[in-house]
Automatic annotation (TrEMBL), chain A:
PROSITE patterns: UBC_2 (PS50127)
Bilayer topology term: Peripheral membrane protein
Name assigned to this protein: AKT-interacting protein isoform A
InterPro entries reported in the protein's UniProt record: Ub_conjugating_enzyme, UBC, UBQ-conjugating_enzyme/RWD
Residue ranges of the region described as Disordered: 1-59
GO annotation (BP), single: apoptotic process
Gene Ontology, cellular component aspect: cytoplasm; plasma membrane
Keywords: Apoptosis, Cell membrane, Cytoplasm, Membrane, Protein transport, Transport
Pfam families hit by this protein: UQ_con (PF00179)
Superkingdom as given in the UniProt entry: Eukaryota
TrEMBL record, chain B:
Listed transmembrane segments: none
Subunit structure: Component of the FTS/Hook/FHIP complex (FHF complex), composed of AKTIP/FTS, FHIP1B, and one or more members of the Hook family of proteins HOOK1, HOOK2, and HOOK3. The FHF complex associates with the homotypic vesicular sorting complex (the HOPS complex).
Name under which the protein is recorded: FHF complex subunit HOOK-interacting protein 1B
Species this chain originates from: Alligator mississippiensis
Function: Component of the FTS/Hook/FHIP complex (FHF complex). The FHF complex may function to promote vesicle trafficking and/or fusion via the homotypic vesicular protein sorting complex (the HOPS complex). FHF complex promotes the distribution of AP-4 complex to the perinuclear area of the cell.
Entry keyword set: Protein transport, Transport
Biased composition (Acidic residues): 514-524
Length: 286, 767
């Protein structure tokens, strides 16, 4: 639904993400497995990367105008959308491109049914600064989540933020992964870590409580007031039926919409060929 | 006709037993022959036929009606009829009439026929018919060279012919047609031989952090920075600009209504920052744990904003336009057969699998990596010939026997197996010559060399040497006039006709029409004679003309000629520069990673022999700066030039009749947008036809209008009376500085837009 949230952005009014909708988005490919870590992700276990990219040293952000910052973040967001992380949705804030609202749906595992809202804070000297920070609205019971602030320990995965190698979608993917693969080393929440190691049953029940707590606060007003903040509301047919309908039919209508908007290109090149007019005639899409 | 669509019998009756199709198609030929040979030119900025240009010309209107009728018939008729009519148009009109017309000996006639062709291509909406036109342009060989090559070569000229050709290519690029782009540029980039081996994988990389944009913006000449403007005028200048682009609030609203980009907050964020009330907008940023929000770090804001302010406030507009253009182009290109990302088609795809029965000897590929040209040439016309109609009787040059090129070129072909390939090989050889011509031609003309194409045979080099040896003998120096140029052009044409450019291409007598040409050119917009220009001489020096050794990468004649024109920007007329930069910007909007990385990626490392766009622009920057340094009153001139360009834009936008041509394609091309002040400077790419046309018109009127007199009266171009040439040179250079600066912003914006193109546009269309 990161896709649909992006689609909705033009309509600024649409701020509501209904909890019920989470079953309906056209995400048929929700595989219940972790995506493999891309090669360029810094390994979690290896905090200090020996060879920081040369680009990170030169080209300080001071020489970049705000246009670059803005577009860098826009490009990062585009990458997130392309990534289609299952169950992870983000939306940049209206007021600052440096703050993104997000929500993670956990679909299986210990944290199954968890719906965790969070906020990503991006340093203003991005991409030359530290790694973005990710703070859950409610401190989830998790070894890597600070029990007071709700901040996720992102740093351990991105000890050094390397432009061109590290991207915000990786942070989001990391945030999703910690709920599927529990890591207890040097925890922010030692209690959770110890319980996980020593008393998994108690850990599980604490997790269930935490998930319930989060769900019970689902309909709360967003922690940060912003027109683009993600809010949940109970199903209201008056509003949501229409939105749902729109979502389900969106692809098609958008396609047509675009067709009328854009000039279609031409091609008579047979796929696989590099000769002009190699395609047989009359197969031209108009 | 419509009935035939559903009734095969009717259709086959029409095709087999009636003369409907031949009559219709040859009717075009007849009507074409009655078109004016020479187009009455209204101003020195004229470069394409607008509707109001041709609607009043009875013969042209008649032709256009007839063409539209053909188009309509093809649209509704049965495929049989459609096919037959398209074939007849190709074989009965384009090949026998349009082909020779484009190769007329007088420049005037070339201009007219090129303008007609542009009008036709722009007007034909029916894909099947358009296909015939494009196939004609891309594949048909007239006297040995494809029409495309001939047209590309003419971009290198320095006259109205260049402008008309530029508009033709603008129209071709606006089609977003894979076949066109393949032939023009992509096929030269597919082998990836232009990038360092280690860089090949970087072709697909997106420039996420605006490095390329920063690089482009850094090339804005120092003398064009606002702080270098004379202080008293500065405020005034800014006032004009501000008015042109609306107050921030106006801009914000228009930004919000942009349909696709979906970043209202981002953009309005900027607007707020620029406006006086910016602080409070930022102050509203919610407190967040430890977030160093922009508002919380005002310390390093001011310098940055100064940097943006220096963009004269219109960079946002460029960003918005670039976004639209790139998105639109990406969307249009989704019907293409391949992404052209360095992998599909693979770098080798041009070499081993050319058209079946390709008569290229193995040793043709023997020396080093096969150059693109080899492959291109190896593309026999037959490749597209499956659809060529029965009457397809192209005047191919006769085989080897009478082809002087055969001798020159003998060596590589020696190992060629089989004799069935004669024809194609001939074609191959012949095609070298225009290339050689093109090389030599600008030398004599004092224009810079197009970056030399890749030669693959020593024989060509010898031919080239011969041409070069001849070059100094030409009365170049002071005599690099239009006359000598058009003479060269004649020779070029003649050489092509002779099929090889060997010995027989002795001087033709200058054609009768030439004086007219020259006169016209002189009075109009030809670049001033600049024999003394050291740069031009350096550029024209023979060593560069030798070109890279055979195995060196070559990015294609189209890119070569565009780059060489760009390098010469300082001397081009304002109109040529506006068209030229528009064309390059159009090219830069294409999303194919091969093209995008070649033009826009500042991080890319190319082979040493490959010139990058940034290098070219860097040299222009230096030229402008040294010109500015030599011109005491440059700041004042620049300011005036800007002001008057803006003023003219404002003055004339209102009255400019909608230049949109009537037929259908134009509707999509010409997006209606509100004319705004400074439209010329903000060279809107998404409405090339109208925006530029209007700008041209505006400029023209300004030029001749009272403003110019005021300008002259103000003693600005005071040399005009005594030393017209010098005045023209100064004027071109000053206008060039303005256009160049805007062009860099446009390119920077396009580079940024590529990183944020919506991924939805790139997804395959839903079934």
């Amino acid at each position: 639904m990161s896709t649909s949230s992006a689609r909705k952005r033009p309509e600024a009014e649409e701020k509501t993400l209904t909890g019920e909708l989470r079953t309906s988005p056209p995400r048929t490919s929700t595989k219940k497995q972790l995506p493999s870590i891309p090669k360029n992700t810094v390994p979690v276990t290896k905090p200090a990367s020996p060879a920081p990219s040369s680009q990170s040293t030169n080209g300080t952000h001071a020489s970049y105008g705000p246009f670059y910052l803005e577009y860098s973040l826009l490009a990062e967001f585009t990458l997130v959308v392309k990534q289609k992380l299952p169950g992870v949705y983000v939306q940049p804030s209206y007021r600052s491109a440096l703050m993104w609202f997000g929500v993670i749906f956990i679909r299986h595992g210990l944290y199954q049914d968890g719906v965790f809202k969070f906020t990503v804070y991006i340093p203003d000297n991005y991409p030359d600064g530290d790694c973005p920070r990710l703070v859950f609205d409610l401190p989830v019971f998790h070894p890597l989540v600070d029990p007071l602030s709700g901040e996720l320990d992102v740093k351990r995965a991105f000890a050094k933020w390397r432009r061109n190698h590290n991207h915000i979608w990786q942070v989001l993917m990391y945030a999703r992964r910690v709920f599927y693969k529990i890591d207890t080393t040097s925890p922010l929440n030692p209690e959770a870590a110890v319980l996980y190691e020593k008393d998994i049953q108690l850990f599980k029940s604490k997790v269930v409580d935490s998930v319930k707590l989060c769900s019970s606060h689902l309909f709360d007003q967003p922690k940060i007031e912003d027109p683009y903040a993600i809010t949940f509301s109970p199903w209201n047919p008056a509003i949501h039926d229409e939105a749902r309908e729109k979502m389900l039919t969106q692809k098609k209508s958008e396609d047509q919409h675009c067709k009328s908007m854009h000039v279609s290109g031409l091609s008579w090149v047979k796929p696989g060929s590099v000769q002009p007019f190699s395609k047989e005639e009359k197969t031209m899409p108009t | 006709m419509a009935m035939s669509a559903g009734n095969c019998t009717v259709a086959s009756y029409i095709t087999d037993h009636s003369y409907f199709c031949p009559v219709l198609a040859t009717g075009l030929s007849a009507l074409y022959s009655s078109l004016p040979r020479k187009i009455e030119v209204r101003g020195d900025d004229w470069h394409f036929l607008r509707r109001e240009d041709w609607a009043g010309v009875a013969s042209l209107a008649l032709f256009m009606n007839s063409l539209e009728f053909c188009s309509a018939v093809i649209q509704v008729a049965h495929p049989l009829v459609q096919q037959q009519l398209v074939d007849y148009v190709h074989n009965g009109f384009l090949v026998p009439v349009m082909g020779p017309a484009l190769h007329k000996t007088s420049v005037e006639e070339m201009i007219a026929s090129t303008a007609y062709l542009e009008l036709f291509v722009r007007s034909v909406a029916e894909p099947a018919l358009l296909r015939a036109f494009l196939r004609f342009i891309l594949l048909h060989r007239h006297d040995g060279a494809t029409i495309l090559d001939t047209l590309v070569a003419r971009l290198g000229t320095n006259s109205r012919l260049c402008m008309v050709s530029l508009s033709l290519f603008r129209t071709l690029l606006s089609l977003n047609c894979e076949d066109v782009m393949l032939q023009l540029v992509l096929r030269y980039l597919i082998p990836c031989s232009h990038v360092m081996l280690s860089q090949r994988r970087a072709v697909k990389d997106l420039d996420l952090y605006g490095r390329s944009a920063a690089k482009f913006l850094s090339l804005i000449p120092r003398c064009c920075h606002p702080e270098s403007l004379p202080p008293p005028d500065r405020d005034e200048e800014h006032a004009t600009w501000a008015k042109g682009h609306g107050s921030p609030s106006v801009d914000t609203s228009s930004v919000v209504t942009v349909p696709k980009p979906a970043t209202p907050s981002r953009l309005s964020f900027f607007m707020r920052q620029q406006s006086a009330s910016g602080a409070e907008g930022l102050g509203a940023v919610p407190r967040s744990p430890g977030l160093a929000s922009p508002a919380s770090s005002p310390g390093h804001r001011p310098p940055r904003w100064e940097e943006v302010a220096e963009l004269d406030g219109n960079y946002l507009e460029y960003l918005r336009d670039a976004r639209l253009s790139v998105d639109r182009c990406a969307w249009a290109c989704r019907v293409w057969s391949a992404p052209y990302d360095g992998e599909r088609p693979g770098p080798d795809s041009l070499a081993p699998t050319p058209a079946p029965a390709l008569p290229i000897s193995p040793d043709h590929f023997g020396h080093g990596p096969p150059t693109p040209r080899t492959k291109k040439r190896g593309l026999p016309e037959e490749a597209g010939g499956s659809s060529a109609g029965p009457g397809d009787s192209r005047p191919l040059p006769a085989p080897d026997a009478q082809d002087p090129g055969a001798l020159v070129n003998g060596a590589p072909e020696s190992g060629r197996p089989g004799g069935g390939a004669e024809g194609a090989v001939t074609v191959k050889k012949v095609r070298r010559c225009p290339q050689a011509e093109r090389e030599a031609l600008p030398t004599e003309n004092g224009a810079p060399q197009p970056p030399a194409p890749g030669w693959e045979g020593p024989s060509v080099d010898s031919l080239l040497d011969e041409l070069l040896a001849r070059a100094p003998a030409e009365p170049n120096g002071a005599g690099l006039s239009i006359e000598s140029f058009s003479e060269e052009l004649q020779e070029l044409e003649a050489a092509m006709r002779n099929g090889g450019g060997g010995p027989p291409r002795a001087q033709l007598p200058p054609p009768h029409a030439e004086e007219d040409e020259a006169e016209d050119e002189d009075e109009a917009f030809a670049a001033p004679p600049r024999p003394a220009d050291p740069l031009a001489q350096v550029l024209a020096s023979p060593p560069r003309a030798l070109g890279p050794p055979p195995s060196q990468p070559f990015t294609g004649p189209f890119v070569a000629v565009l780059f060489s024109k760009l390098e010469n920007m300082l001397h081009n007329s304002l109109y040529v520069n506006v068209l030229l930069t528009g064309l390059v910007a159009q090219l830069a909007c294409y999303p194919q990673p091969l093209l995008r990385s070649f033009l826009l990626n500042a991080n890319m490392v190319f082979q040493p022999s490959v010139k990058s766009l940034l290098q070219v622009l860097g040299s222009v920057k230096n030229k402008i700066e040294s010109f500015a340094a030599s011109q005491d009153d440059f700041p004042a001139l620049l300011l005036k030039a800007k002001k008057y360009l803006i003023a003219r834009g404002k003055l004339d936008w209102g009255d400019t009749p909608n230049a949109a041509p009537a037929l259908r394609r134009s509707d999509t091309l010409v997006k209606s947008r509100k004319p705004s002040l400074g439209e010329l400077l903000l060279r809107h790419t998404q409405s090339p036809t109208r925006a530029r046309a209007a700008a041209q018109l505006a400029l023209q009127q300004v030029r001749e209008g009272p403003v110019l007199q005021a300008l002259a009266g103000a003693g600005l171009f005071r040399g005009a009376a005594e030393k017209q040439g010098e005045a023209l040179r100064v004027k071109n250079a000053v206008y060039c500085a303005v256009v160049f600066t805007e062009f860099l912003k446009e390119l920077a914006a396009i580079a940024q837009a590529h990183a944020v193109t919506s991924p939805f546009l790139l997804e395959p269309p839903e079934e």
